């Protein structure tokens, strides 16, 4: 692992087609750095106005950037399928998919369009479905990679996949439900790597987490006046810049040293800040029987089968 890896260490990305979910925060920083490295970047998000703003900011910094916007609501499986169909018709291949977008700890239980709990449905199932739809394009990519974002919240001893109340219909507590969604993302990344190897898909699946970063996630979900939002506002100096938090994802997406089945995060202060390094994997993320059960259930919930295209 190179010490103090930064965006300047990103290899040239010219000719590589890259999809990043999320128009702000970490997603924006991913897209900016990859466009700067010459990648052909698609930013996918719900809000076309925010997408247009992100593209304008990137082109201001990188005038010749190849960057476009695709509308997708990860909380709506029909929207995810529609984006997959559009890309299937307009692209011959995709080289990198970064499953980044997410929602965090809304104070009361909310549902996606399809009736799933919002965090589990958006952070995990939406990206599960998107990856399934884009798998044929990824398989035609050059050294293709799927990078899925987890969180240090998944490292807590209480983080678990609660099959008895997967959608938090009986009991909703914001942070444990968020932690479950991010543990599911991590288990998905590992299971996708195992299945890719077994089926010969040739797609490397890698996980990353940003540590604790200054994004609008805490302001946008629980709100600026929540305990988390106040901490984000008043204790800003404890949160690393979003560009720094994006580094583990960028490392996973581009470094020749990043390996399929790897998990990368910041190297300092318990993984909360710093430069990319191997992240600590919570033991529950390595429970393959749980991962297989979650995968099978996820295919049922999304009505999708990986590799069926």
Commentary on this structure:
The chain is of the alpha/beta class. The chain has one domain: NAD(P)-binding Rossmann-like Domain (Rossmann fold). Helices cover 41% and strands 15% of the residues. It has an eight-stranded mixed sheet with strand order 3-2-1-4-5-6-9-10, with helices on both faces. α4 (118-139) packs parallel to α5 and α5 (174-199) crosses α10 (288-302). The N and C termini lie far apart (36 Å). The relative contact order is 0.15. Residues 226-237 have low confidence and may be disordered.
Output the keywords.
Rossmann fold; alpha/beta; two-stranded parallel ribbon; 309 residues; 41% helix; eight-stranded mixed beta sheet
Per-chain topology:
Layout lengths: L16 E5 L3 H12 L3 E6 L2 H14 L4 E6 L5 H14 L5 E4 L18 H22 L5 E5 L24 H26 L4 E5 L4 E2 L2 H4 L6 H8 L5 E2 H4 L1 H8 L8 E6 L4 E6 L9 H15 L7
Parallel strand pairs: 1-2, 1-4, 2-3, 4-5, 5-6, 6-9, 7-8
Antiparallel strand pairs: 9-10
Structural class based on helices, strands and sheet pairing = alpha/beta
Within CATH, the superfamily carries the name NAD(P)-binding Rossmann-like Domain
Global morphology = globular
**Shape-level CATH architecture:** 3-Layer(aba) Sandwich
The count of strands amounts to 10
Portion of residues in beta strands equals 15-25%
The neighbouring-strand order within the major sheet is 3-2-1-4-5-6-9-10
Number of alpha- plus pi-helical segments: 10
């Amino acid at each position: 692992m190179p010490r103090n890896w930064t965006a300047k260490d990103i290899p040239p990305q010219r000719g590589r087609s890259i999809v990043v979910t999320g128009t702000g925060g970490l997603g924006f920083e991913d897209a900016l750095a990859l466009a700067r490295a010459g990648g052909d970047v698609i930013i996918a998000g719900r809000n076309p106005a925010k997408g247009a703003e992100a593209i304008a900011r990137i082109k201001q910094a990188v005038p010749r950037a190849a960057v476009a916007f695709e509308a997708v609501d990860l909380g709506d499986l029909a929207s995810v399928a529609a984006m997959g169909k559009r890309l299937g018709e307009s692209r011959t291949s995709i080289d990198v998919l970064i499953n980044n977008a997410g929602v965090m700890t809304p104070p009361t239980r909310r549902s996606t369009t399809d009736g799933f709990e919002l965090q589990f449905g958006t952070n995990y199932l939406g990206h599960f479905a998107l990856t399934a739809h884009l798998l044929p394009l990824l398989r035609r990519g050059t050294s293709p990679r799927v990078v899925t974002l987890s969180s240090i919240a998944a490292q807590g001893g209480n983080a678990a996949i609660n099959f008895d109340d997967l959608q938090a219909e009986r009991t909703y507590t914001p942070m444990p439900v968020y932690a479950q969604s991010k543990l599911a993302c991590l288990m998905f990344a590992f299971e996708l790597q195992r299945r890719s190897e077994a089926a010969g898909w040739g797609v490397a699946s890698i996980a990353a987490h940003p540590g604790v970063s200054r994004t609008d996630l805490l302001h946008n979900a629980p709100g600026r006046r929540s305990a988390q939002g106040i901490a984000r506002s008043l204790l800003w100096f404890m949160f690393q810049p979003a560009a720094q938090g994006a580094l583990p994802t960028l490392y996973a997406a581009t470094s020749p040293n990043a390996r399929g089945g790897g998990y990368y995060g910041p190297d300092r202060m318990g993984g909360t800040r710093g430069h990319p390094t191997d992240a600590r994997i919570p033991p529950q993320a390595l429970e393959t029987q749980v991962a297989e059960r979650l995968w099978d259930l996820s295919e049922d919930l999304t009505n999708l089968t990986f590799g069926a295209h």
